[in-house]
Amino acid sequence: MKHYRADVVGSMLRPDYLLHAREQFASGSLADAELKRIEDRAVDECVAIQERAGVDVLTDGEMRRHVFASQLAQACEGFASIPSNQVDWFTLDGRVETSPVTVGLVGKLRRKRHLSSEEFVYLRAKTARPTKMTIPSPTMYAYYWVPGVSNAAYPSPEAYLADVTGILKDEVTELGRLGAEYIQIDAPEFGMLIDEHQRAWFARKGFDPDRMLHDGVEMINAIIDGHPGITFGLHICRGNDANRYMAKGGYSRIAVQIFPRTHAQRLLLEYDDERSGDFAPLASVPEDKVVVLGLISTKTPREESAAELRARIKEAGAYIPLDRLALSPQCGFASVAKGNAIGFETQENKLRLVATVARQIWND
Question: How many domains does the chain fold into?
């Protein structure tokens, strides 16, 4: 297992020229080849930001994605916009905002291309630093199941997620063949299952929340198993879009069901504010796993201090040894392409703080 003390989660702010290019592409006024050149430029700039900041591992910022989980919908037939598929978000002051889910399942899945191999091959060629690829967990795609619509494609949500798991498992095999050494599996739905409001949302879609948690870990393990040369991370947050969140509550509700059972070697956990609860659930993490503390917020422009991060890491050390800890932002800076309302300079400062504090504490 690779030890990366200064980690990143995945997405980074998209430059305005990329957002504009995507609008042009969607309207049909920009060709595929030109969009690719613009995406390449954005990835190059994203790599440079991370290299300057000094973090231990780099991503491509998910510049080629509409949202962090969009590879499946971009690479497979079977999805379409369904206006009635909506989910509640919460603003930082607690107001509820209902927003559409990007797409819904309308047909049998048929993969047209690999999900992330283009992202990885380009990133690998652009840096000598260690790299990370991110993929969504299978149960993340429960968002796209729409009762009364998706049933025409699959007899049950479980049959649909079995197909999703197979596609993701094949994708990991391909990434491993191409040389990927670190793959992060994003599972914000596990964080949503902490919150009663969102558990009820999944139940209305036809998912039993407790079974979804149990089976979700098994699906992830099926993707991980058989790849001893790859370090796997499991990222569990509580939603991240336009400075909003989806859930609140500590990890105690799900820790025992996930931390000892997952085959992921690194747990990337959101701990940037009071919504995340205390560090006590870290006592459930087995000795063979590292916890990456997501202490730096990507939701607010306030820049944390090194002193407060060191104090919080020390606090977490009461439940898990320091040598099994690492540091990262709490989530991506732009899980959805439009991004959170912070500036590029603040983004880079926050990443530099991750690297600086990691060197101060571990120096390995």
Answer: 1
Paired strand residues for 6:
327
Lookup result for tokens 């739905």: 189
- Cβ pair 238, 9 in contact under 8 A: no
Residue 104 CB partners (closer than 8 Å, separation 6+): 79, 80, 81, 82, 85, 144, 145, 146, 149, 150
Q: Between the CA of residue 290 and those of 7, 136, 156, 256, 318, what are the distances in Å?
A: 12, 20, 36, 16, 15
CA 66 to CA 71: how far, in whole Å?
8
Q: Per the domain annotation, does 11 fall within a domain?
A: no
Beta partners for residue 235, in sequence order? 186, 268
Query: What tokens were used for 329?
Result: 């932002």
**What pLDDT digit, counting tens, does each position of 156-198 carry?**
999 999 999 999 999 999 999 999 999 999 999 999 999 999 8
Q: Name the residue with tokens 């989910």.
A: 87
CATH of the domain at 326: 3.20.20.210
DSSP three-state, residue 96: strand
240 part of a folded domain: yes
CA dist., res. 359 & res. 248, Å (int):
31
User: How do residues 11-43 score in pLDDT, each as one tens digit?
Assistant: 999 999 999 999 999 999 999 999 999 999 999
**DSSP secondary-structure letter at 113?**
S
Closest CA to 21 of 10, 11, 13, 30: 30
Give residues with Cβ within 8 angstroms of 95, minimum separation 6: none
Q: Is residue 8 part of a domain?
A: no
Task: Please give the C-alpha separations between residue 231 and each of 130, 136, 290, 309, 323, in angstroms, as whole numbers.
Answer: 12, 16, 11, 25, 17
Residue 179 structural domain: 16-361
User: Nearest Cα to 120, choosing from 162, 70, 60, 172?
Assistant: 60
d(CA 27, CA 8) in angstroms, rounded, equals: 33
**Residue 93 covered by a domain:** yes
Alpha-helical regions (H) of the chain: 16-27, 32-53, 71-75, 117-126, 157-178, 188-192, 196-204, 209-224, 255-258, 306-316, 344-361
